[in-house]
Amino acid sequence: MLPRCNKNCSRLKRMSEITGCLSIEEEVHSSPLTYSSCKNSSYKSRIPGESSWTSQDRYCWLQYSRNLSNQQNDVASQPIRSHCGRYVLVFSGHINNHLEIRRGLRNQIWKGNSDVETLVEGLAQRNTSLLVDLRGVFAFAFYDTETRQLLLARDRLGVKSLWWQKQDTKLCFSSNVRQLFQDKLKLAPSCVSHYLSFGYYPMEGELGEGIYPLPPGTLMRIGPDSSPTFLRWWPPSPRPDWTPLPIKRRRDAVKLIRQELERVIQEHISSDRPINCLLTNDSSSKIVAALAAQHSSKPIKTFSVHIQDSSIPKNGITDFANHIGAFHQEIYISSKEYIEFFTKAIKTLELPSFQAAHSCVIGNALKRSGVQTIMFGFESQKALGVHLSGLVLMARLARLRVFELWPKVMQVMNSRLFSMAEDAPWLDAWHLLLAGHRLATNAELKTTNLQALDWPKPPSCRLTQFLPRIFWNDLFGYVEPFLLRDIDQMERIVGIETKLPLFDHRLLELLLRIPEAFYLMSWDRSLLEIACQDLLPRWIMRSKMSLKNVSLTGKHMEKLQSEVILSIFNEVNPIPTQILNKERNIDSLLYQNNLPLITSNLG
């Protein structure tokens, strides 16, 4: 059972959030959003957990909110000014290499070791050219008090969320989308259809009430006399050299991947903090834990979360933890606790979804067990090439140039996939990828008078190889809007810091440049697994089916999650419920996304 905490501890708490507004024609006299009004514009005037700043001319207002239970001594107060006093920054996230960046800046009298102070000084001296050197996850707003220009930016993969909205003569932004809605969450019709079709919200386009997400790897600049301008800063322009690496042997590629994996893990290991890893039933989490144990100077601690009254055996996790020399702790939650956490999460989430609420259950269980920071890898199969059998077949068909035969092949071999892709504008790799995640057809949407699915456009891609292009599409068409966005919500609501070393951009760039012929050589193992095969037990490499024993499906959870999605849409956008019950779409959603698998993934 989870340790019993007081009521304040059991509540879902929010971590850091940034919010602000830039007025083009009129002064900002108070908070334009749902936060408390900015009663005092003095930069030094603060209240615990929430601090705000208003420019002297009252045309810009910035606010930073943090979870008091997660304060750290080396965290600088926000909003923070540059040493010259000209620039002001609010920031959410963490920069892994900020001390390295400091060495390239002009001599300063640093007040502490905070990455926030490094970022504001770096932007003040190097402007947007600093972005390409940042390694970490972040979303920030940077204001120039002289030119009255506001800069918004997100990290490369969009781990940290940032939303913006044009309100008459104001531009408002927030990392919490609920702050931008006037009343309750009111989704656009196209957004509702997209969620029912895929189980997650669209990566681009209007969410509702003129609210848009700032795309990953993008910066937005707006001044007093101009409209917002957008620049995709990653991948960098001009075109990066992402052509295949001149590697002739697979063992050389595997060696290069191993070196990059070790570098990434070492960057995420902090000498002054406990090293906590979440173990799940996928190989990614085990790779992260094994490398962390190898490169840490002190024993690491691993965790797994289980339903207490589940009858499914949990063998495998503890054996692996003993194999790498980690101290392992199994966290048990009862069905009653799961229902309690899940219900609280649904009521607290900015964008309610199955996956996000399930992530909050795991995050809250870890938090109540004393975990402040957790490092893990989760199943991003297509983005990182963990299970490639379907994509390998797709790539081989591409080499044979038989795309025109796909409709007939699919109709015979996979009738469900064919039905999900039948109304797609094209039967190319992008739309087939989306069809594989699709849950409801246009015919089913039509029965409830909902708008037909507006198929999202593929993300811009500069890769020359077919298989890496598939990885890229899946990364920004599924992993970012579905998995990473929900992890960000969980982190801010529960108040636990998450680290995702396998989503380091340099590691991803390397994997995208590995010659695809090396991926085509293996059906059952990824290059990541081959690169770490000396660290993983042989029984893991021989049989992945045995790992399914740690999956806790628990059919008693199906009814709960079915009821929750009905309550979501009754509260958010009242719609007929037939589409949710037709042909047990709820169950297909649960099992397709592994939602009942408590130890399957956080995202």
TrEMBL record:
UniProt: L-glutamine binding residues: 115
Annotated metabolic or biological route of this protein: Amino-acid biosynthesis; L-asparagine biosynthesis; L-asparagine from L-aspartate (L-Gln route): step 1/1
Membrane-crossing segments per the record: none
Sequence positions that bind ATP: 278, 305
Ranges where the Glutamine amidotransferase type-2 domain occurs: 9-225
Documented EC number(s): 6.3.5.4
InterPro entries xref list: Asn_synth_AEB, Asn_synthase, ASN_synthetase/amidase, GATase_2_dom, Ntn_hydrolases_N, Rossmann-like_a/b/a_fold
Catalytic activity: L-aspartate + L-glutamine + ATP + H2O = L-asparagine + L-glutamate + AMP + diphosphate + H(+)
One of the Pfam families matching this protein, by short name: Asn_synthase
Broad EC category: ligase
Gene Ontology molecular functions: asparagine synthase (glutamine-hydrolyzing) activity; ATP binding
Keywords associated with the record: Amino-acid biosynthesis, Asparagine biosynthesis, ATP-binding, Nucleotide-binding
GO biological process: asparagine biosynthetic process
Family to which the UniProt record says this protein belongs: Belongs to the asparagine synthetase family.
Record's protein name: asparagine synthase (glutamine-hydrolyzing)
Origin species: Acaryochloris marina (strain MBIC 11017)
